[in-house]
Amino acid sequence: MGKKAATSEVIDGLINGLRDTDAGVRRYACEALEKMGEKAATNEVINGLVNALRNTDAGVRRCACEALCIIGEKAATNEVINGLVNALRDVDDGVRWRACQALGKMGEKAATNEVINELVNAFLDDDAGVRLRACEALGKMGGKAATSEVINELVYALWDVDAGVRRCACQALGKMGEKAATNEVINGLVNALRNTDAGVRRCACEALCIISEKAATNEVMDGLVNALRDVDAGVRRRTCKALGKMGEKAATNEVINGLVNSLLDVSADVQGCAFQVLEVFS
């Protein structure tokens, strides 16, 4: 029933359910509150979910994180944030990555020094899902999380053994925009253009597109020209867009020749993007 059942009487009953002696009932109470979303975002509910983060049952702790994630910014109190920071050190990896996810959903409101430091520590987690969600969370915090330490750790994450983490690191750097446009970041993204995973290469193109003006170096443009010949059409299309975003700085003979060749691409989308960029250059 979800939001339609979110009466004060039902919510009070679910809060009591969070303290039930049976772990299954406690989990279902968390799940029901999660489905009610912001309609269930009362102080009593939020306090109950914070207490549930310390429950002896890992399933209850996971469900509490998920409920707080759905409630999002409305739950971004100091008590909740502290509870989620503690959950980042939980013995259960499912709790840890859900805690990252919940902090990310709270965005800039959760971007305290303590939270940022703990998310950076999560890059060392054994579980790839935790590392991935830590990257995502820092990306959602945007410029507020763009400290030199965070940026350096995201550059290291571009070399993570897990392709999903590498993709999220590219995306997070892109979301931080010009604040993340350091030489180390740009070099890392150029290297990512040659990654074995097409998704990583796509995300690297997107990040370079966002920081385009500061990224318009010879090395970057050489990397993008090579990417115009990538086996993946999504990479080729994003490469055209990145070159277009760099404007006249990218209008070298080599780039223009590469874009002219792209007019013959097997993908109509790539052809269209190349044509648009050449129009801008002209």
Could you explain the architecture of this structure?
The chain is an all-alpha fold and 282 residues long. The chain has 16 helices and no strands. The chain has helices spanning 8-17, 23-36, 43-52, 58-71, 78-87, 93-106, 113-121, 128-141, 148-157, 163-175, 183-192, 198-210, 218-227, 233-246, 253-262, 268-281. The longest helix is centred in the N-terminal third of the chain and has 14 residues, at 23-36. The protein is elongated, with a radius of gyration of 22 Å. The termini are far apart.
N to C succession of SSEs: HHHHHHHHHHHHHHHH
Question: Average pLDDT across residues?
Answer: 92
Number of strands: 0
| CATH-level-2 architecture of the largest domain | Alpha Horseshoe
The 3D shape can be described as elongated
Instruction: Calculate the terminal CA-CA distance, rounded to whole Å.
Output: 58 Å
**Regions with little confidence, pLDDT below 50 for 5+ residues:** none
Q: Which class best fits the helix and strand makeup?
A: mainly alpha
Q: Could you describe the largest sheet, including whether it forms a barrel? A: none
* Helix residue percentage: 55-70%
The CATH class label of the largest domain is: Mainly Alpha
Number of helices: 16
Q: What name does CATH use for the topology of the largest domain?
A: Leucine-rich Repeat Variant
Number of domains: 2
**Multimeric status of the protein:** single chain
Protein name: HEAT repeat domain-containing protein
GO molecular function: oxidoreductase activity
